[in-house]
Amino acid sequence: MSLLKGFVCTAILYLPDSFNQAGWLFQVISLSFSCCLTIFCAYLLIEVRKIVRLPSYSDMGEKLYGRPGKILVNIALFLSQAGFCCAYIRFIVYNFHTIFQDIFGLDKENETDEYYTAAFCLIIFTLLCWVRKIEIFAQTHVFADIMILLTLLYVIIMGIYQISDPEKSAQLK
Q1: Which of 63, 101, 135, 164 lies 20 to 30 A from 75 at CA?
Q2: What are the Cα distances from residue 7, in Å, to 3, 12, 87, 109?
C-alpha cells in the first residue's frame, strides 16, 4: 500500500482532469504506454539486482559504471524523490487553498494566500520529517490507505456516471 501511495495516488487524483483536457483516447494510450514502460524498467532492475547481488541502486550503479555510475544513480533518485515531494506539496496546497477560499471567502486571484498555505504545509511536513520512528504513524497509515481506496472508488464511480449520462454530470460541475 505504501507503493500505491508513493507512486500512484497523486496521478490517480489528477486523472479526471487530465482525461478531460487531453481526451480519452490519448489518455488511455499514454497510460498504457507508461504502465508497460514502468513494468519493463522494474523488470530490468530486478534482473540486474539478481545478477550483481547488491542491496541498493547506488551500489548497483557503482558496480556497473564505477564512481560516476553511483553519483548519477544518486542524482536520479534525488530528483525522482524531489519530484514526488513537489507534486504532493503542490497538490496539497492547491486543495487546502481551494477549501480555504470556499470556507473563508478568500480572494481567488490572490496568490499570496497560496504562499501562506504552502508555508504552513512545509512547516508541518518539516516537523513530521523529524520523527525518527515512523511506526507511531501505523494507524494513520492504514487510515490513509483506506481513504485512498475510497477516493479511487469515488473517482471511478463518478467517471462511469459521467460517461453514462453526460447531461446529468454537467449539472454536478
Answers
A1: 135
A2: 6, 10, 11, 31
Phi, psi values for residue 110, rounded to 5°? -85, 110
For helices 138-164 and 9-22, the axis angle rounded to 10 degrees is 20
> Percent of the chain having pLDDT more than 70?
82
Residues 6+ apart with CB under 8 A from 151: 12, 13
Q: Exposed, middle or buried: residue 121 (CB in 10 Å: 0-12, 13-18, 19+)?
A: middle
- What is the CB neighbour count within 10 angstroms for residue 173? 5
Quick check: 90 and 70 in contact, CB under 8 A?
Answer: no
- Mean pLDDT over residues 52-80, rounded? 89
- The answer to whether 89 and 117 are in contact (CB under 8 A) is no
The better pLDDT of the pair 44, 137 is held by 44
Handedness of CA 22, 27, 31, 37 (dihedral sign): negative
Q: What is the pTM of this model?
A: 0.58
Residue 152: other Cβ atoms inside 10 A: 16
Whole-angstrom Cα distance, residue 40 to residue 126?
A: 35
